[in-house]
Design brief:
alpha/beta; Glucose Oxidase, domain 1; eight-stranded parallel barrel; about 675 residues; Histidine-containing Protein, Chain: A; eight-stranded mixed sheet; 24 helices; single chain; about 40% helix; Enzyme I, Chain A, domain 2
Length: about 675
């Protein structure tokens, strides 16, 4: 038996999506795998069983594997957990929105007999005017009729098959509108095949219960276990189990799917005690302008879906909201969590102004997202996207990306038992280049270390993997991985379209050895010229930028790691992450030093960390001379729009003010003062 203790650093713990990734990976191994949280133990191959553990962010769990491939299983699961199980570990699942002064305006309260106000928690930002519709699904009545075990099992499995078909069709309909919706359906599809639920239902049928009753008992018991968890986000996932459960129950009971909005005209504000993810996704988005529920929180899937679809939502609203009559006119303010029923003419007029403001701002940003971003005085700043998989390319282009400024390649190597072949990597690179249709692509080579061990390479246990054999340091001992990746890139390369950058470079000799290898491979393959750069994410690289600039074509500053290495503050550690503010003067001075050194050698500098989408930091970065910005897809239109409001001379003045500060708080205070002026 193999055993390992690991800390779950996902911002919302092992909620539905990372639990799905974890269970899917566990299923790839033949050995028995258990995961334990305190005194609770679960089958690692059951996503629902994993959810019942209630694993919070920062919780230590124990994973046990027992069987022929136990060692490979432990290594793969350790890698997946340390890599975030499909999530960015430093990014909360639910991001709060920083609203401008205009955006935070409340619809005024006008107390009279014509209307009433109701309050809840903001689920998704925005304002809308519509007519109330009280959404209430009919109850599914289940009677226990039993034929024989085999027949009931067959009936049950047929219902599972039908539910799979329905969810797959729903996923196809919503995937273009919302990646969150598609991912939630992925979790539901996983639950349909959950071994614990299937086995529990089988046992109930074998004990003499009919298929519908057996299934109802299984999913209800499991949902109850999850709802009793003391973590709001994890407890919310009980609704996913109930949603999947009700879908199969409806099929087993012979009920047809309901379309409660079929005979109604929009705009509609849907009010309900609660909405399941399936209910939310199935509603006609051309009619619905807002959601309001008396249950759930900001981490509920209804709220997540509303944010993803751009629809205002209120959750945990006053229970009296369920008494509002259908077709009552109302204003929903998702920014403040307020709903006004029967608003007077003044309130409606003011709400319409705000709706028009939001609509115009969003529309304007998207309309100009495909235009280049230049300051008011004509200084052009290319804005690229950071992505982790090929599937993100179309969305990035739709949102206005002028290219890909950071392609993380780790996903190709993780969650598998053997390394990807040259051919496999070549096909992926070729696919991305084709989708980009002439736009540039910057590829970061494999960034793996002791914190993300791979099952197919041997690495020594390290007490501090962030300071150990990671990034380019791994290439010397794992040259096959390095060479195979470079060969695949050179095979796909088109002249002047691809750039490659090495991660975690800290030393010039190290860089020169890798550069020589890079050039040798390219020359032997007679490949077109490919620009070579390095990530500036270690303080020594920033300090020695003048020397390093002689050996590369460009720098790309990774502010996330540069910040935590400079300030000695792990951004994932809740005790000290308040120190890891990338706008700190120490980090800004390293950026300034890097840019000055690069420009002195006629080399360009891009920035691909989170700092690039920080609205207070952006003027500073432009003032320091950053040539290109690469940000998350969701920030593209906003960043490009903000750049167009700035002037380079003003940005340079702001940058000098920031460099004279002594703390991150002082920088932000000074920037706020300058913005107000």
């Amino acid at each position: 038996m193999k055993q390992i203790e690991l800390v779950i650093n996902n911002p919302s713990g092992l909620h539905a999506r990372p639990a799905k990734v974890f269970s899917n990976l566990a299923k790839q191994f033949n050995c028995n795998i258990q995961i334990t949280n305190a005194d609770k133990k679960a089958n690692a191959k059951s996503v629902i069983s994993v959810l019942t553990l209630g694993v919070h962010a920062g919780t230590s769990v124990t994973i046990e594997a027992n069987g022929d491939d136990e060692e490979e299983a432990i290594t793969a699961l350790e890698t997946a957990i340390s890599s975030g199980l499909g999530e960015e570990l430093n990014t909360p699942i639910t991001e709060s929105k920083n609203l401008s002064s205009e955006e935070s305006v409340h619809v005024p309260e006008r107390k009279n007999k014509q209307h009433a106000d109701f309050h809840g928690v903001s689920g998704a930002p925005g304002i809308a005017i519509g007519n109330i519709f009280q959404y209430s699904k009919s109850t599914i009545e289940v009677s226990n009729s039993f034929t024989d075990t085999n027949t009931e099992l067959s009936i049950f499995m047929s219902a599972v098959k039908q539910a799979t078909y329905e969810l797959t069709a729903l996923q196809a309909n919503v995937s273009d509108q919302s990646t969150d919706a598609a991912e939630i359906i992925d979790v539901h599809l996983e639950m349909l095949e959950d071994p614990e639920l299937i086995e529990s239902t089988r046992a109930n049928i074998e004990s003499g219960l009919g298929a519908a009753t057996a299934w109802q008992k299984s999913f209800t018991d499991m949902a109850l276990l999850i709802s009793d968890l003391d973590d709001e986000t994890l407890a919310e996932r009980s609704k996913d189990v109930k949603d999947v459960g009700d879908r199969i129950l409806r099929i087993l009971s012979g009920h047809e799917p309901e379309d409660l909005l079929l005979s109604r005209e929009g705009p509609i504000i849907v009010v309900a005690r609660d909405l399941s993810p399936s209910d939310t996704m199935a509603l006609d988005q051309t009619k619905v302008v807002g959601f309001c529920t008396t249950e759930g929180g900001p981490t509920s899937h209804t709220a997540i879906l509303a944010r993803s679809l751009g629809i205002p939502a209120i959750v945990s609203a006053d229970i009296q909201i369920l008494d509002i009559a259908d077709d009552t006119e109302a204003i929903i303010n998702g920014n403040t969590g307020a709903l006004i029923s029967k608003p007077d003419l003044n309130a409606i007029a003011e709400a319409k102004k705000l709706v028009a403001f939001y609509h115009k701002k969003h529309k304007d940003n998207l309309l100009t997202a495909h235009e280049s971003a230049a300051t008011k005085d004509g200084h052009r700043v290319p804005v690229f996207a950071n992505i982790g998989t090929p599937s993100e390319v179309p969305k990035a282009l739709l949102e206005g990306a002028e290219g890909i400024g950071l392609l993380r390649t780790e996903w190709l190597f993780l969650e598998r038992l053997t390394p990807p072949s040259e051919e496999e990597q070549f096909i992926v690179m070729q696919e991305i280049i084709t989708m980009l249709a002439g736009k540039p692509l910057v590829i970061r080579t494999l960034d793996i270390g002791g914190d993300k061990p791979l099952p197919y390479i041997t690495m020594k246990q390290e007490s501090n993997p962030f300071l150990g054999e990671r990034g380019v340091r791994l290439y010397m001992s794992q040259q096959d991985l390095f060479v195979t990746q470079l060969r695949s890139i050179f095979r796909a390369a088109k002249p002047d379209l691809i750039r490659v950058m090495f991660p975690m470079v800290s030393d010039r000799d190290e860089l020169r050895n890798l550069r020589d290898k890079f050039n040798d491979i390219r020359e032997n393959m007679s490949a077109p010229k490919v620009e070579l750069g390095i990530m500036i994410e270690v303080p020594s690289a920033a300090i020695m930028a003048e020397a390093l600039a002689e050996d590369v074509d460009f720098f790309s500053i990774g502010t996330n790691d540069l910040t935590q290495y400079t300030l000695a503050a792990d951004r994932l550690n809740p005790t000290v992450n308040y120190l890891a503010d990338a706008i700190h003067p120490a980090v800004l001075k390293l950026i300034d030093q890097t840019v000055s050194a690069a420009h002195a050698k006629n080399k360009h500098v891009s920035l691909c960390g989170e700092l690039g989408s920080d609205i207070q930091a952006l003027p500073i970065l432009l003032g320091l001379g950053i040539d290109e910005i690469s940000v998350s897809i969701s920030a593209l239109a906003k960043v490009k729009a903000l750049i167009r409001t700035l002037s380079l001379p003003d940005c340079k003045k702001i940058a000098q003010v920031a460099l004279q500060c002594s703390t991150a708080a002082e920088v932000r205070h000074k920037i706020k003062q300058l913005s107000n002026n």
